[in-house]
Amino acid sequence: MKRAIFPGSFDPITLGHYDIIKRAVKLFDEVIVAIGINAEKKYMFSLEERMQFIKDAFANEAKVTVVSYEGLTVDFCKKNNVKFILRGLRNPADFEFEKAIAHTNRDLAPIETVFLLTAANTSYISSSIVRDVIRNHGDYTKLVPNSVRVK
Ligand code: ADP
Hints:
The chain is α/β, with parallel strands linked by helices. It has one domain: HUPs (Rossmann fold). It is 36% helix and 21% strand. The chain is built from five helices and five strands; from the N terminus they run βαβαβαβαβα. It has a five-stranded parallel beta sheet, with helices on both faces. Strand 4, helix 4 (92-108) and strand 5 (112-117) form a beta-alpha-beta unit. The longest helix has 17 residues, at 92-108. The chain starts with a strand and ends in a 16-residue tail after the last helix. The model has no long low-confidence stretch (mean pLDDT 97). Adenosine-5'-diphosphate binds at residues 8-10, 14, 16-17, 20, 87-88, 90, 94, 118, 122-123, 125-127.
């Protein structure tokens, strides 16, 4: 069984993440969307809200599961028999950052990182820009799946 973990903050999930997950479903038997808990980070949405947004977006997709985890991604992989880490690439800055993480992870465990290039029409979307639009009362609904709604 080929399992991949897609780790991130997903604060909130965007159409960019959505596109990567949809495409990964065709490559893997299971895609575990895993929200990393970082006690030092401040989030706009609670862990429960972020998990629910993703669960609702993939309610009809049996291959997608949503979890949260603490600690190293490679430790989560070892414990859960996950052999692939999935990451999305938008631009050269993403590449440089992801390269360092992927090399470090490979030093730590024999786990492959698989990169999917973002779709052209979602490559400019980031959770931080979505948060900015929300904070300033703009129309964020074009940037996120329908499941993401601000109360
Ligand atoms: P992190 O806190 O790890 O950066 P994010 O939730 O911002 O978490 O991102 C998780 C993953 O999704 C990363 O691999 C990131 O490169 C990817 N990603 C973010 N936005 C997009 C997008 N618009 N298109 C494709 N991949 C994306």
